[in-house]
Design brief:
alpha+beta; Nucleoside Triphosphate Pyrophosphohydrolase; 2 domains; four-stranded antiparallel β-sheet; 3 helices; 12 strands; 41% strand
């Protein structure tokens, strides 16, 4: 089997900063031929997703309008890991900001690369257990979120019927299932 080698960056392109992400086009070289190729990179911080569960086994889900798909979606709380912030701190912060719920215990489920073809960031998933409502939430300016509780047992149907379609949300639930199956 042929060993694959990294594609060296020849030139860094002009960067366009859009606050939540930066986009640039670099020139790279094919390590086999030396031929130059443009490659678009979307640089963004790491993200977190939080599966919030109340003491009575209700999932804490949120609805919000998503501009990429031009519709309201059902998801789990999540957001950006601030510079210098630990992912678990970001998970607790995002859960509380978006929903007003505070977890008794956070469990790291794992992290995935959101889109390694274009992005260097990772999405860290957490399970928040024993969640209790403390307030109505403190959403960021520009966020319009409603909070819903759904029985934990309804999750498979919510995914299978297309109510939950966000790939990174589905991954978070899959990571939870893998951890539960591994006895962790």
């Amino acid at each position: 089997m042929r060993e694959l080698r990294p594609w060296p960056r020849l030139r860094r392109g002009l960067e366009h900063d859009y606050q939540i992400l930066k986009v640039r086009e670099d020139m790279v070289a094919d390590p086999r031929t030396g031929q130059e190729h443009p490659r678009v990179l979307i640089d963004c911080p790491d993200w977190v997703n939080v599966i919030g569960v109340t003491r009575d086994e209700q999932l804490i889900l949120i609805r919000q309008y998503r501009f990429g798909v031009s519709r309201v979606t059902l998801e789990i709380p999540g957001g950006v890991v601030d510079k210098g912030e630990a992912p678990e701190h970001a998970a607790a912060r995002e859960l509380e900001e978006e929903t007003g719920y505070v977890a008794e215990r956070l469990v790291a489920l794992g992290a995935v690369e959101a889109n390694p073809a274009l992005q260097p960031n990772r999405c860290h998933s957490f399970l928040a257990l024993g969640c209790e409502k403390r307030h109505e939430g403190h959403q960021d300016v520009g966020e319009d979120i409603t909070v819903e509780l759904h029985p934990r047992a309804s999750l498979p149907q919510l995914i299978l019927d297309g109510t939950i379609t966000h790939s990174l949300v589905v991954v978070a639930f899959y990571l939870e299932q893998l951890r539960a199956g591994a006895g962790r």
